[in-house]
Design brief:
Layout (H helix, E strand, L loop, with lengths): L8 H14 L11 H5 L10 H9 L10 H4 L5 H5 L6 H14 L12 H6 L2 H11 L2
Helix pairs in contact: 1-6
Length: 134
């Protein structure tokens, strides 16, 4: 039996924020699944790209708990294949920005021992902190 889903103001606020940050008209997504079928990293994702689009369309902030937005390599395979010419990598970037603006730190610098710090390439450490800390 079909379930009716009604968006609340809070849900539409989240959708509008992601559309503003990404510059993409997410509601144009027709859920064809082409983005997920072509993604080279879909096997590593906990939810696939088309599910990300659907959750954002529905204003479900639970999408922020997914690791998919961090796995997206912005390879543009989804964009090239999308019949609506939507750029899902921009949506992933918008989701990452919302997380980073919330200052949620995924890495604690204090947890890295001095020995590890000496072994790690500097650029990898800097890149990780830019990507995983607020």
């Amino acid at each position: 039996m079909a379930q009716i889903i009604k968006l609340k103001d809070k849900d539409t606020d989240f959708l509008e924020k992601i559309m503003e940050l990404s510059g993409e008209q997410i509601t144009l997504c027709e859920q064809c699944g082409t983005c997920s079928a072509g993604c080279p990293f879909v096997s590593e994702m906990d939810i696939n790209p088309s599910q990300i689009m659907r959750l954002v369309m529905l204003g479900q902030e639970s999408v922020m708990d997914s690791k998919t937005m961090w796995i997206c390599a912005s390879c543009f395979t989804c964009t090239v294949r999308c019949p609506r010419k939507l750029d899902l990598s921009k949506v992933s970037e918008a989701l990452r920005q919302v997380t980073l603006r919330g200052a949620i730190d995924e890495i604690d610098i204090k947890e890295i021992s001095d020995e590890e710090a000496l072994k790690l390439p500097t650029i990898a450490v800097v890149g990780s902190f830019r990507k995983f800390t607020g």
